[in-house]
Structure formats: structure tokens, C-alpha cells
Design goal:
Layout lengths: L2 H6 L3 H5 L2 H10 L1 H20 L8 H16 L7 E2 L16 H12 L6 E2 L4 E2 L4 H11 L3 E5 L2 H12 L4 E5 L5 E2 L3 E2 H8 L2 E5 L7 H7 L4 E7 L15 H10 L4 E6 L17 H6 L4 E5 L10 E5 L1 H9 L2 H4 L4 H13 L5 H5 L1 H6 L3 H17 L4 E11 L2 E14 L6 H9 L5 E2 L1 E3 L2 E5 L7 H14 L1
Parallel strand pairs: 1-15, 5-8, 5-9, 9-10, 10-11
Antiparallel strand pairs: 2-3, 4-12, 6-7, 11-12, 13-14, 14-17, 16-17
Bound molecules: pyridoxal-5'-phosphate.
């Protein structure tokens, strides 16, 4: 044990008097600064008692305290730069909002608002009134409502229309979405009974018809948004299911999942069914997410026949699943962008990303590589296949370009860790010992930050 080092440990006040800690105390308060100094000195003492020989100079203690204070004050939920190329990255917050939506949410957050107030009539209004007219005109439905997310929407639909009775579902559509949303389990939670028909790869109209009986409350179709059954496979189309359901006096319920309101051709989404197609099939109730292909905030949108939506609004579960004011403001603003058929492709970030031409992506990668090479970092512009993500359109690879950093001075794993450790973490992906930074998912300004951050790592 090093008695000399123990003796040289600085006093708390001595460290607090240093300039670095005075300004830290001004920013975060004296108590927090003092607590950090105390715990830093305690750590040093323990280290010395264990045989270590740490730097015990007051300056070194001050530096480590300021670093710890800064890290501790950094918000846990904070911005990241998505350089993964996965457009709807569930871990990175799915769809970034358009400017209009972010502004609307911020305005409503700061002030009182008309959440449940009819200003013209001077009396209580409905939370749902802000978007149901917009949804009806955009989707061509009789009525609509919104809840917290699409998992909540499915739960509410089943709890209202199936509870205590059966819904007929194809075995090919018993979907699991990440984070424990599974059709059989949601059905159980709702109090409804799942009546599975057909097989994994093939379900025929007759399979549904044979299952319909006294107990049947509905036919449910679930879009297999995060997987595809290919090869010797057959499913019954939404329009056919509507025909079957109506012949038996039943509603056809359709969990569409991703909820594309855009043109799938323009956005590289291939044969992804759109909300308009689902409505056109005649489905009685359609539900989908607000933050998948719609590109809005987390929400569950339920659209369809008024008689069914009215029943849902009266379900006590609705209160537990309700959407909050900031989300509602962001959703309304997002839907307003869709009122102009061209505007979404230039305003909704994920639609812009999905429709970026390859030349633009290559141009970005070349620009970033040129800047990094200028700073002496070895880097190549490479073509790659990116993903839509968020469990959407799983079989499609979107052609993209990446900056591949292959500078041997810092391994890909260490570079990745340093970039993730920043105040604004940078998330890329490692392939073949290189760090790939995908250009598709970058937002304005991100390239400058990437160039500066990577340069900084190699300058250390
Ligand atoms: C994503 C998805 C859900 C869940 O939606 P959230 O908005 O994530 O709650 C439900 N059903 C299907 C088919 C989905 O794709």
C-alpha cells in the first residue's frame, strides 16, 4: 500500500476551488459538483488501497469529475445519427417526424390547447375530432379513431368486436412482431377466441367458410408485414374475405401493420399493400401504425364503418389506450401533408429517404469519403443493400451506398464503439472488418457531423 499517495490525495475543497469545477458548479449546482469530487476522491482512495498508483493531482481529479458530470447530465433519450441504412429502425425511434409535425407537437406541448374542447361551441369536445375528418377524407372511410399504437388498435378492435366469440384467422398470418406482440396472445388478451384455419403456406376460401359457425364474430386478416411465405403458397385476398364475411353477416377486420399511404412504386416498396387498397377491398375495419410507412408519430389508426368505430369509442379500454396531445398534434400535421399528393415525398423524411435515387446516395458517399481522405483517413465508397426496417417489407433490399472506413490504425470494432460513445451517438454497421456508414438514412447536417466525428477519432 502506498502511504505517500494516500497522503497526497487532495481535499474536496481544494478541487472545488479549481476553475474547471467552479464553472461546473455554476452549470450544475455546487452540491452535484461536490458530490462528484467526493466520490472521485473515494474511488482514488480505494484504488490506492488495492495497490493501484493513480494520478492524484487536483487537476486530474477535476478533469475526471467534469467528464463524469457531463456524462451524467447527458439525456438518456437523445438524438442519434442513423447510419445503418435501416429507414424504420425500431430501436432508433422508427420514423423521424416531418418539420410540420415536430413543430405542431412542440406548440401543443408548451401551451393550453383544444385537446377536448370545442372552441366554437364553448363546450367539451372530442379528442378524436382533430383527425377523424382528415382520416375519412384521405382514406375514404366512414369513420376513424386513433390510439397509442397499432398493438393497442388491434387489442381494441378485437376486444370490442370479438370478445367472448371467435375470429377466424389463417395459420399463415399468425404474426409475431418484435417486442412480444403475437396475434394469438393479443387475441387471448382481448377475450376473443382464435379460430385458426388452413396451413402455414396455403389457406383457401373454403377453409374460412368451414370454420364459420354460431360462435363466429369476424374474419380477421393480418398483413404478414415482417415476413413472406414464398413458393407453394396461397392466401385468400382481402376482397375475397370481405365477400365471404358479408355473405355470413360478419365484419372483415384487417390488421395492415405498416400502413403505407404513399405510392409503393415511387418508394421502392414493391407489392406492399397500401391503406387505400385495404379500404378499397371493402374491409369493415382496418388498423395500422402511425410511425411505420405513414412516417408520423407512434400511433394506432383505426378506420372503417361508423357502426364499429362508434362501439370502439365506447369501450372502456379506449381510455387506457388513448393517444396523448403531442402525438395527436404531430399526427394531425403529418396527415395534412398527405392532403397534397406530391408533398409527402418532399416533406415526410422516411418517404424522402425511401425514394432517394442511387446517384444521390453515391454522391453523398463520395463526398464523405473525399472529406475523410482529405483528413488522412482511409475510406471507400461502396454499393450495398439496405433495408426498410421496422418489420416492414422484409424481402426487399434497397440499393444504397456506404462510406466504408477501412483504416487499419483503429479497428472497426473500436471505431464503432467510439462513435457510439459520443453525445450524439453515430450508429453504423460492421461488415468484413470495416465500419459501413450508410447514406440513405442521413438527415440534413449529418454528413458534416460524421466527417468531424470520424476525423476526431483518428486524430486522437
Ligand atoms: C407493427 C405491427 C403491429 C404493431 O404495431 P405498433 O404500432 O408497433 O404497435 C401490429 N400488427 C402488424 C401486422 C404490424 O406490422
Amino acid at each position: 500500500m502506498n502511504k505517500e499517495l494516500l497522503r497526497r490525495l487532495p481535499q474536496i475543497d481544494e478541487v472545488l476551488r479549481l476553475n474547471a469545477l467552479r464553472s461546473a458548479a455554476d452549470r450544475w449546482g455546487h452540491d452535484l459538483a461536490a458530490a462528484h469530487v467526493r466520490s472521485a476522491i473515494d474511488d482514488l482512495r480505494r484504488d490506492i488501497l488495492a495497490g493501484g498508483e493513480p494520478d492524484v493531482s487536483p487537476d486530474a481529479v477535476a478533469q475526471s469529475c467534469v467528464r463524469a458530470l457531463e456524462r451524467g447530465q447527458r439525456p438518456s433519450l437523445r438524438r442519434v445519427i442513423n447510419a445503418t441504412g435501416v429507414v424504420l429502425h425500431t430501436n432508433l425511434g422508427r420514423a423521424p417526424l416531418c418539420e410540420e409535425a415536430a413543430q405542431a407537437a412542440a406548440d401543443v406541448a408548451r401551451r393550453y390547447n383544444t385537446l377536448e374542447y370545442d372552441a366554437a361551441a364553448g363546450r367539451r369536445g372530442s379528442r378524436y375530432s382533430h383527425v377523424d375528418g382528415l382520416l375519412c377524407s384521405l382514406l375514404g372511410c366512414e369513420s376513424a379513431m386513433v390510439v397509442n399504437n397499432n398493438a393497442a388498435a388491434v387489442l381494441l378492435v378485437l376486444s370490442t368486436l370479438v370478445r367472448g366469440r371467435e375470429a377466424v384467422v389463417s395459420r399463415g398470418e399468425l404474426v409475431e412482431i418484435g417486442g412480444s406482440f403475437r396475434v394469438p396472445e393479443i387475441m387471448e388478451m382481448s377475450g376473443g377466441i382464435l379460430r385458426e384455419v388452413g396451413t402455414t403456406n396455403k389457406t383457401h376460401p373454403q377453409d374460412y367458410v368451414s370454420a364459420i359457425g354460431e360462435q363466429t364474430a369476424a374474419i380477421l386478416k393480418v398483413h404478414t408485414s415482417n415476413y413472406r411465405i414464398l413458393g407453394f403458397a396461397e392466401e385468400v385476398s382481402a376482397a375475397e374475405l370481405v365477400g365471404l364475411a358479408h355473405e355470413h353477416g360478419l365484419p372483415m377486420l384487417y390488421d395492415l401493420g405498416s400502413g403505407a399511404l404513399c405510392d409503393p412504386q415511387r418508394t421502392g416498396l414493391g407489392d406492399e399493400p397500401t391503406v387505400l387498397q385495404a379500404m378499397a377491398s371493402g374491409a369493415d375495419v382496418v388498423c395500422f401504425s402511425g410511425d411505420k410507412l405513414l412516417g408520423g408519430p407512434q400511433a394506432g389508426i383505426i378506420a372503417g364503418k361508423k357502426q364499429y368505430i362508434d362501439q370502439m369509442k365506447k369501450n372502456p379500454l379506449t381510455r387506457a389506450l388513448r393517444i396523448d396531445k403531442m402525438t395527436l398534434a404531430a399526427l394531425e400535421a403529418t396527415l395534412r401533408v398527405y392532403q397534397d399528393s406530391e408533398k409527402p415525398y418532399a416533406h415526410i423524411p422516411i418517404l424522402e429517404m425511401l425514394s432517394l435515387p442511387e446517384e444521390v446516395l453515391r454522391g453523398r458517399a463520395e463526398d464523405l469519403c473525399a472529406r475523410l481522405k482529405g483528413a488522412g483517413v482511409s475510406c471507400q465508397c461502396v454499393p450495398e443493400g439496405g433495408q426498410v426496417g421496422g418489420g416492414s417489407v422484409p424481402t426487399r433490399l434497397l440499393p444504397t451506398y456506404c462510406a466504408a472506413i477501412d483504416d487499419k490504425r483503429v479497428s472497426a470494432a473500436v471505431l464503432d464503439e467510439r462513435l457510439r460513445g459520443r453525445d450524439v451517438p453515430i450508429v453504423g454497421r460492421i461488415a468484413h472488418d470495416r465500419l459501413l456508414l450508410d447514406m440513405r438514412t442521413l438527415l440534413p447536417g449529418d454528413i458534416d457531423e460524421l466527417a468531424a466525428a470520424v476525423t476526431e477519432v483518428f486524430a486522437q
